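Format notes (please read before filing issues)

Several people have asked whether sequences and C-alpha coordinates are stored in separate files. They are not. Every record keeps both together, in the order shown below: the sequence lines, then the C-alpha coordinate lines. Line labels are part of the format and must not be stripped during preprocessing.
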Amino acid sequence: MAPRTATQVRHITTPAPDRRRAWLIMAMIVTFMVINFADKSVLGLAAVPIMEELGLSNSTYGLISSSFYFLFSISGLLVGFLSTRISSRVLLFGMTVLWAVAQLPVLVVATVPTLMAGRILLGAAEGPAASMSMHALYKWFPPERRALPSALQIGGAALGTLIAAPLVTWLIDGFGWRSAYAVLAAVSAAWALVWWRVGHDGPYDHKHTATGFDGLRLLYRRILLTGTVLGSIASAFGAAWALSLSHAWLPAYLRTQMDMSAAASATAISVMSGFGLVLLLTVSPFVDALKSRGVSSRWSSGAVQSIAVCVAGCAMAAFPFVDASGPRLVLIALAFGGIAIAIPLHYMTTAEVVPPAQRGAVFGIVAGLGTLPGLVAPFLTGHLIDAADTPAAGYTTAFLVAGAVMLTAGAFALTAIRPERDTRRLGLDTGPQP
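Then the structure lines:
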Protein backbone atom coordinates (compact mmCIF):
# COMPACT_ATOMS: atom_id res chain seq x y z
CA MET A 1 0.00 0.00 0.00
CA ALA A 2 1.31 3.47 -0.90
CA PRO A 3 2.01 5.87 1.98
CA ARG A 4 -0.84 8.19 2.77
CA THR A 5 -0.55 11.84 1.85
CA ALA A 6 -1.06 14.79 4.17
CA THR A 7 -4.46 15.38 2.55
CA GLN A 8 -5.56 11.80 3.14
CA VAL A 9 -4.39 11.39 6.70
CA ARG A 10 -6.08 14.43 8.20
CA HIS A 11 -9.56 12.94 7.67
CA ILE A 12 -8.91 10.00 10.02
CA THR A 13 -10.60 10.51 13.40
CA THR A 14 -8.50 10.63 16.55
CA PRO A 15 -9.86 8.70 19.54
CA ALA A 16 -11.60 10.83 22.16
CA PRO A 17 -9.30 11.68 25.05
CA ASP A 18 -9.92 10.82 28.71
CA ARG A 19 -9.71 14.29 30.28
CA ARG A 20 -9.20 13.06 33.83
CA ARG A 21 -6.35 10.77 32.77
CA ALA A 22 -4.87 13.58 30.65
CA TRP A 23 -4.61 15.87 33.68
CA LEU A 24 -3.28 13.04 35.85
CA ILE A 25 -0.51 12.57 33.29
CA MET A 26 -0.06 16.35 33.32
CA ALA A 27 0.45 16.28 37.11
CA MET A 28 2.93 13.41 36.83
CA ILE A 29 4.91 15.24 34.13
CA VAL A 30 5.04 18.43 36.19
CA THR A 31 6.34 16.41 39.15
CA PHE A 32 8.85 14.74 36.83
CA MET A 33 10.17 18.16 35.82
CA VAL A 34 10.30 19.34 39.44
CA ILE A 35 12.55 16.39 40.31
CA ASN A 36 14.54 16.88 37.11
CA PHE A 37 15.47 20.46 37.94
CA ALA A 38 16.06 19.72 41.61
CA ASP A 39 18.62 17.10 40.49
CA LYS A 40 20.24 19.64 38.16
CA SER A 41 20.39 22.30 40.88
CA VAL A 42 21.87 20.27 43.72
CA LEU A 43 25.51 20.64 42.65
CA GLY A 44 25.23 24.42 42.24
CA LEU A 45 23.44 24.83 45.57
CA ALA A 46 26.15 22.77 47.26
CA ALA A 47 28.98 24.43 45.30
CA VAL A 48 30.51 26.44 48.15
CA PRO A 49 30.72 23.60 50.74
CA ILE A 50 31.87 21.09 48.10
CA MET A 51 34.60 23.42 46.82
CA GLU A 52 35.74 24.15 50.38
CA GLU A 53 35.73 20.48 51.48
CA LEU A 54 37.52 19.14 48.40
CA GLY A 55 39.73 22.18 47.79
CA LEU A 56 38.48 22.71 44.23
CA SER A 57 39.49 25.62 41.98
CA ASN A 58 36.83 27.47 40.00
CA SER A 59 38.05 25.74 36.81
CA THR A 60 37.79 22.27 38.35
CA TYR A 61 34.32 22.98 39.70
CA GLY A 62 33.35 24.36 36.28
CA LEU A 63 34.62 21.16 34.65
CA ILE A 64 32.52 19.04 37.03
CA SER A 65 29.49 21.20 36.21
CA SER A 66 30.09 20.87 32.47
CA SER A 67 30.55 17.10 32.78
CA PHE A 68 26.79 16.89 33.31
CA TYR A 69 26.49 17.72 29.61
CA PHE A 70 29.15 15.30 28.25
CA LEU A 71 26.46 12.80 27.17
CA PHE A 72 23.44 15.09 27.59
CA SER A 73 23.00 16.02 23.92
CA ILE A 74 23.94 12.60 22.55
CA SER A 75 21.46 10.81 24.79
CA GLY A 76 18.79 13.35 23.84
CA LEU A 77 19.36 12.52 20.17
CA LEU A 78 19.43 8.75 20.65
CA VAL A 79 16.39 8.56 22.91
CA GLY A 80 14.52 10.87 20.56
CA PHE A 81 14.82 8.29 17.81
CA LEU A 82 14.04 5.44 20.20
CA SER A 83 10.79 7.21 21.10
CA THR A 84 9.39 6.28 17.69
CA ARG A 85 9.60 2.60 18.75
CA ILE A 86 9.45 2.60 22.57
CA SER A 87 6.57 3.92 24.66
CA SER A 88 6.91 7.05 26.76
CA ARG A 89 5.97 4.99 29.80
CA VAL A 90 9.10 2.84 29.47
CA LEU A 91 11.41 5.72 28.54
CA LEU A 92 10.47 8.01 31.43
CA PHE A 93 10.57 5.11 33.90
CA GLY A 94 14.07 4.17 32.79
CA MET A 95 15.27 7.77 33.02
CA THR A 96 14.14 8.30 36.61
CA VAL A 97 15.62 4.99 37.79
CA LEU A 98 18.97 6.18 36.40
CA TRP A 99 18.50 9.56 38.14
CA ALA A 100 18.29 7.72 41.46
CA VAL A 101 21.37 5.60 40.69
CA ALA A 102 23.40 8.64 39.57
CA GLN A 103 23.10 10.30 43.00
CA LEU A 104 24.65 7.35 44.83
CA PRO A 105 28.44 7.44 44.07
CA VAL A 106 29.13 10.52 46.24
CA LEU A 107 27.39 8.83 49.18
CA VAL A 108 30.14 6.18 49.13
CA VAL A 109 33.17 8.39 48.48
CA ALA A 110 33.26 12.10 47.58
CA THR A 111 36.04 12.84 45.11
CA VAL A 112 36.33 14.68 41.81
CA PRO A 113 36.05 11.39 39.83
CA THR A 114 32.91 10.25 41.68
CA LEU A 115 31.32 13.70 41.39
CA MET A 116 32.02 13.68 37.64
CA ALA A 117 30.84 10.08 37.20
CA GLY A 118 27.56 10.85 38.92
CA ARG A 119 27.02 14.05 36.92
CA ILE A 120 27.84 12.34 33.62
CA LEU A 121 25.35 9.53 34.31
CA LEU A 122 22.75 12.02 35.51
CA GLY A 123 23.25 14.14 32.39
CA ALA A 124 22.88 11.11 30.13
CA ALA A 125 19.63 10.20 31.89
CA GLU A 126 18.30 13.76 31.94
CA GLY A 127 19.33 14.72 28.39
CA PRO A 128 16.04 13.47 26.89
CA ALA A 129 13.92 14.46 29.91
CA ALA A 130 12.39 17.75 28.74
CA SER A 131 11.80 16.68 25.14
CA MET A 132 10.48 13.18 25.96
CA SER A 133 8.19 14.37 28.74
CA MET A 134 6.83 17.02 26.35
CA HIS A 135 6.38 14.30 23.72
CA ALA A 136 4.53 12.14 26.28
CA LEU A 137 2.34 15.11 27.22
CA TYR A 138 1.46 15.90 23.61
CA LYS A 139 -0.01 12.39 23.32
CA TRP A 140 -2.80 13.52 25.67
CA PHE A 141 -3.61 16.99 24.26
CA PRO A 142 -4.56 18.08 20.69
CA PRO A 143 -2.42 20.70 18.90
CA GLU A 144 -4.83 23.58 19.57
CA ARG A 145 -4.77 22.91 23.35
CA ARG A 146 -1.05 22.54 23.99
CA ALA A 147 0.05 26.02 25.09
CA LEU A 148 -1.10 25.68 28.71
CA PRO A 149 0.11 22.06 29.16
CA SER A 150 3.43 23.05 27.59
CA ALA A 151 3.76 25.98 29.98
CA LEU A 152 2.85 23.79 32.97
CA GLN A 153 5.43 21.21 31.92
CA ILE A 154 8.18 23.82 31.77
CA GLY A 155 6.64 25.40 34.86
CA GLY A 156 7.63 22.20 36.64
CA ALA A 157 11.22 23.20 35.94
CA ALA A 158 10.71 26.56 37.61
CA LEU A 159 8.94 24.84 40.50
CA GLY A 160 11.85 22.42 40.77
CA THR A 161 14.28 25.26 41.34
CA LEU A 162 11.81 27.20 43.50
CA ILE A 163 11.26 24.20 45.79
CA ALA A 164 14.78 22.81 45.60
CA ALA A 165 16.61 26.01 46.50
CA PRO A 166 15.27 26.36 50.09
CA LEU A 167 14.78 22.62 50.70
CA VAL A 168 18.17 21.49 49.44
CA THR A 169 19.88 24.42 51.18
CA TRP A 170 18.14 23.42 54.44
CA LEU A 171 19.34 19.83 54.01
CA ILE A 172 22.89 20.99 53.23
CA ASP A 173 23.04 23.35 56.21
CA GLY A 174 21.40 20.94 58.64
CA PHE A 175 22.65 17.52 57.56
CA GLY A 176 25.54 18.08 55.15
CA TRP A 177 25.54 18.32 51.37
CA ARG A 178 25.47 14.52 50.89
CA SER A 179 22.01 14.36 52.47
CA ALA A 180 20.55 16.31 49.54
CA TYR A 181 21.85 13.67 47.13
CA ALA A 182 20.32 10.86 49.21
CA VAL A 183 16.90 12.51 49.41
CA LEU A 184 16.80 13.21 45.66
CA ALA A 185 17.71 9.58 44.90
CA ALA A 186 14.78 8.37 47.02
CA VAL A 187 12.34 10.83 45.44
CA SER A 188 13.36 9.81 41.90
CA ALA A 189 12.86 6.13 42.71
CA ALA A 190 9.42 6.81 44.22
CA TRP A 191 8.28 8.74 41.13
CA ALA A 192 9.41 5.91 38.86
CA LEU A 193 7.28 3.39 40.73
CA VAL A 194 4.15 5.56 40.52
CA TRP A 195 4.73 6.34 36.82
CA TRP A 196 5.05 2.65 35.96
CA ARG A 197 1.52 2.19 37.28
CA VAL A 198 -0.23 5.22 35.73
CA GLY A 199 1.93 6.50 32.85
CA HIS A 200 0.29 5.16 29.71
CA ASP A 201 0.43 6.70 26.21
CA GLY A 202 -2.53 8.85 25.18
CA PRO A 203 -4.90 8.94 22.19
CA TYR A 204 -2.75 11.46 20.31
CA ASP A 205 0.11 8.97 20.17
CA HIS A 206 1.25 8.62 16.56
CA LYS A 207 0.44 4.89 16.71
CA HIS A 208 -3.23 5.78 17.27
CA THR A 209 -3.62 8.77 14.99
CA ALA A 210 -3.64 9.51 11.30
CA THR A 211 0.12 9.60 10.93
CA GLY A 212 1.07 6.17 12.28
CA PHE A 213 4.12 4.15 11.36
CA ASP A 214 2.71 3.56 7.87
CA GLY A 215 1.56 7.18 7.54
CA LEU A 216 3.20 10.39 6.41
CA ARG A 217 6.95 10.72 6.94
CA LEU A 218 9.48 13.20 5.62
CA LEU A 219 13.23 13.15 5.21
CA TYR A 220 14.76 14.41 8.45
CA ARG A 221 17.07 16.63 6.42
CA ARG A 222 14.06 18.48 4.99
CA ILE A 223 12.56 19.03 8.43
CA LEU A 224 15.77 20.06 10.16
CA LEU A 225 16.76 22.59 7.50
CA THR A 226 13.53 24.56 7.77
CA GLY A 227 13.89 28.03 9.22
CA THR A 228 11.40 27.13 11.95
CA VAL A 229 13.44 24.22 13.30
CA LEU A 230 16.75 26.07 12.95
CA GLY A 231 15.26 29.11 14.68
CA SER A 232 13.80 26.95 17.44
CA ILE A 233 17.22 25.39 18.00
CA ALA A 234 18.74 28.88 18.19
CA SER A 235 16.11 29.95 20.72
CA ALA A 236 16.83 26.83 22.79
CA PHE A 237 20.59 27.47 22.50
CA GLY A 238 20.33 31.00 23.87
CA ALA A 239 18.05 29.93 26.71
CA ALA A 240 20.27 26.95 27.57
CA TRP A 241 23.36 29.16 27.93
CA ALA A 242 21.63 31.12 30.69
CA LEU A 243 20.08 27.99 32.20
CA SER A 244 23.40 26.17 32.51
CA LEU A 245 24.96 29.23 34.16
CA SER A 246 22.07 29.50 36.61
CA HIS A 247 22.51 25.89 37.73
CA ALA A 248 26.32 25.98 37.95
CA TRP A 249 27.28 29.51 39.00
CA LEU A 250 24.33 31.63 40.13
CA PRO A 251 24.29 30.34 43.74
CA ALA A 252 28.06 30.84 44.05
CA TYR A 253 27.81 34.32 42.49
CA LEU A 254 25.13 35.43 44.92
CA ARG A 255 27.12 34.17 47.90
CA THR A 256 30.62 35.32 46.92
CA GLN A 257 29.94 38.48 44.88
CA MET A 258 26.82 39.81 46.57
CA ASP A 259 27.74 38.63 50.09
CA MET A 260 24.50 36.72 50.62
CA SER A 261 24.13 33.96 53.19
CA ALA A 262 23.19 30.48 52.01
CA ALA A 263 19.58 31.03 53.11
CA ALA A 264 19.34 34.46 51.45
CA SER A 265 20.83 33.08 48.25
CA ALA A 266 18.31 30.21 48.25
CA THR A 267 15.46 32.67 48.80
CA ALA A 268 16.64 34.88 45.92
CA ILE A 269 16.86 31.89 43.58
CA SER A 270 13.37 30.78 44.61
CA VAL A 271 11.98 34.26 43.91
CA MET A 272 13.63 34.26 40.47
CA SER A 273 12.17 30.84 39.71
CA GLY A 274 8.77 32.08 40.84
CA PHE A 275 9.14 35.02 38.47
CA GLY A 276 9.83 32.59 35.62
CA LEU A 277 6.78 30.53 36.58
CA VAL A 278 4.53 33.61 36.63
CA LEU A 279 5.79 34.55 33.16
CA LEU A 280 5.03 31.06 31.88
CA LEU A 281 1.50 31.00 33.27
CA THR A 282 0.86 34.52 31.95
CA VAL A 283 2.26 34.05 28.47
CA SER A 284 0.66 30.68 27.65
CA PRO A 285 -2.98 31.98 27.74
CA PHE A 286 -1.74 35.03 25.82
CA VAL A 287 -0.30 32.79 23.09
CA ASP A 288 -3.53 30.75 22.94
CA ALA A 289 -5.57 33.96 22.71
CA LEU A 290 -3.44 35.26 19.85
CA LYS A 291 -3.79 31.98 17.97
CA SER A 292 -7.58 31.93 18.48
CA ARG A 293 -7.75 35.42 16.93
CA GLY A 294 -5.92 34.24 13.85
CA VAL A 295 -2.45 35.61 14.65
CA SER A 296 0.17 33.52 12.87
CA SER A 297 2.44 31.20 14.83
CA ARG A 298 5.39 33.23 13.59
CA TRP A 299 4.25 36.15 15.74
CA SER A 300 2.20 34.44 18.48
CA SER A 301 4.86 31.92 19.52
CA GLY A 302 7.95 32.48 17.34
CA ALA A 303 8.43 36.17 18.06
CA VAL A 304 7.54 35.81 21.73
CA GLN A 305 10.27 33.26 22.42
CA SER A 306 12.84 35.14 20.32
CA ILE A 307 12.23 38.48 22.01
CA ALA A 308 12.33 36.82 25.44
CA VAL A 309 15.84 35.46 24.72
CA CYS A 310 16.97 38.88 23.43
CA VAL A 311 15.63 40.75 26.46
CA ALA A 312 17.20 38.23 28.84
CA GLY A 313 20.50 38.60 26.96
CA CYS A 314 20.42 42.38 27.42
CA ALA A 315 19.76 41.96 31.15
CA MET A 316 22.60 39.42 31.37
CA ALA A 317 25.07 41.87 29.86
CA ALA A 318 23.84 44.79 31.99
CA PHE A 319 23.58 43.56 35.57
CA PRO A 320 27.34 43.24 36.31
CA PHE A 321 27.61 47.01 35.84
CA VAL A 322 24.81 47.90 38.27
CA ASP A 323 26.05 48.62 41.79
CA ALA A 324 22.77 48.89 43.71
CA SER A 325 21.79 45.44 44.93
CA GLY A 326 18.02 45.88 44.35
CA PRO A 327 18.18 46.83 40.65
CA ARG A 328 20.95 44.27 40.10
CA LEU A 329 18.75 41.49 41.49
CA VAL A 330 15.88 42.61 39.24
CA LEU A 331 18.15 42.36 36.18
CA ILE A 332 19.47 38.99 37.35
CA ALA A 333 15.88 37.73 37.66
CA LEU A 334 15.14 38.96 34.15
CA ALA A 335 18.34 37.39 32.77
CA PHE A 336 17.83 33.97 34.32
CA GLY A 337 14.03 33.90 34.72
CA GLY A 338 12.96 35.57 31.48
CA ILE A 339 14.22 32.67 29.36
CA ALA A 340 11.52 30.44 30.87
CA ILE A 341 9.11 31.75 28.22
CA ALA A 342 11.24 30.45 25.36
CA ILE A 343 11.52 26.84 26.50
CA PRO A 344 7.96 25.55 25.89
CA LEU A 345 7.48 27.74 22.82
CA HIS A 346 10.40 26.31 20.86
CA TYR A 347 8.78 22.88 21.22
CA MET A 348 5.45 24.29 20.03
CA THR A 349 6.92 25.91 16.92
CA THR A 350 8.93 22.78 16.11
CA ALA A 351 5.87 20.54 16.48
CA GLU A 352 4.01 22.53 13.83
CA VAL A 353 6.43 21.50 11.07
CA VAL A 354 6.91 17.83 12.03
CA PRO A 355 4.65 14.81 11.33
CA PRO A 356 3.59 13.29 14.70
CA ALA A 357 5.31 9.99 13.90
CA GLN A 358 8.64 11.83 13.79
CA ARG A 359 7.98 14.36 16.54
CA GLY A 360 9.83 12.55 19.33
CA ALA A 361 12.96 12.15 17.19
CA VAL A 362 12.96 15.80 16.09
CA PHE A 363 12.30 16.98 19.66
CA GLY A 364 15.35 14.94 20.68
CA ILE A 365 17.46 16.60 17.98
CA VAL A 366 16.29 20.10 18.93
CA ALA A 367 16.95 19.40 22.61
CA GLY A 368 20.32 17.80 21.87
CA LEU A 369 21.59 20.70 19.79
CA GLY A 370 19.86 23.38 21.83
CA THR A 371 21.46 22.26 25.09
CA LEU A 372 25.06 22.17 23.81
CA PRO A 373 25.89 25.36 25.79
CA GLY A 374 25.86 23.25 28.93
CA LEU A 375 29.01 21.56 27.70
CA VAL A 376 30.82 24.89 27.36
CA ALA A 377 29.33 27.64 29.53
CA PRO A 378 30.03 26.31 33.09
CA PHE A 379 33.65 25.34 32.36
CA LEU A 380 34.31 28.54 30.37
CA THR A 381 32.96 30.61 33.24
CA GLY A 382 35.22 28.86 35.77
CA HIS A 383 38.22 29.38 33.49
CA LEU A 384 37.41 33.08 33.04
CA ILE A 385 37.09 33.56 36.81
CA ASP A 386 40.46 31.90 37.48
CA ALA A 387 42.18 33.76 34.62
CA ALA A 388 40.90 37.23 35.56
CA ASP A 389 42.62 39.64 37.94
CA THR A 390 39.67 39.32 40.32
CA PRO A 391 36.70 36.93 40.53
CA ALA A 392 34.38 39.90 39.94
CA ALA A 393 36.13 40.72 36.65
CA GLY A 394 35.92 37.07 35.59
CA TYR A 395 32.19 36.92 36.31
CA THR A 396 31.66 40.17 34.36
CA THR A 397 33.41 38.76 31.29
CA ALA A 398 31.46 35.51 31.52
CA PHE A 399 28.12 37.31 31.72
CA LEU A 400 29.03 39.60 28.80
CA VAL A 401 29.84 36.53 26.69
CA ALA A 402 26.52 34.99 27.72
CA GLY A 403 24.63 38.16 26.79
CA ALA A 404 26.25 38.28 23.34
CA VAL A 405 25.40 34.62 22.66
CA MET A 406 21.79 35.10 23.76
CA LEU A 407 21.26 38.26 21.69
CA THR A 408 22.68 36.57 18.58
CA ALA A 409 20.56 33.45 19.07
CA GLY A 410 17.37 35.40 19.77
CA ALA A 411 17.83 37.68 16.74
CA PHE A 412 18.36 34.70 14.45
CA ALA A 413 15.29 32.94 15.85
CA LEU A 414 13.17 36.04 15.29
CA THR A 415 13.98 36.10 11.57
CA ALA A 416 13.96 32.31 10.97
CA ILE A 417 10.87 30.93 12.75
CA ARG A 418 7.96 30.89 10.26
CA PRO A 419 5.82 27.77 10.85
CA GLU A 420 3.08 28.61 8.33
CA ARG A 421 5.58 29.08 5.50
CA ASP A 422 7.46 25.89 6.37
CA THR A 423 4.36 23.70 6.71
CA ARG A 424 3.37 24.73 3.18
CA ARG A 425 6.83 23.96 1.84
CA LEU A 426 6.79 20.54 3.49
CA GLY A 427 3.29 19.70 2.30
CA LEU A 428 1.88 19.59 5.85
CA ASP A 429 -0.64 22.40 5.39
CA THR A 430 -3.98 21.03 6.57
CA GLY A 431 -6.07 23.91 5.28
CA PRO A 432 -8.86 23.48 2.72
CA GLN A 433 -7.74 21.98 -0.52
CA PRO A 434 -8.72 23.38 -3.94
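For reference, the curators noted about this record: Residues 1-15, 208-214 have pLDDT under 50 and may be disordered. DSSP finds 22 helices and no strands in the chain.
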